[in-house]
Amino acid sequence: MKSCKWCDNIFESNVSYQIYCSDKCREQATKEKIAQRYIKTRRQKRKGKNRLCKKCGEKLSIYNDEPLCSRCLINPGEVKKALRQLRGLANDKSKRNR
Ligand SMILES: [Zn+2]
Ligand SMILES: [Zn+2]
Question: Is the pTM value of this prediction over 0.85?
Answer without folding.
Answer: no
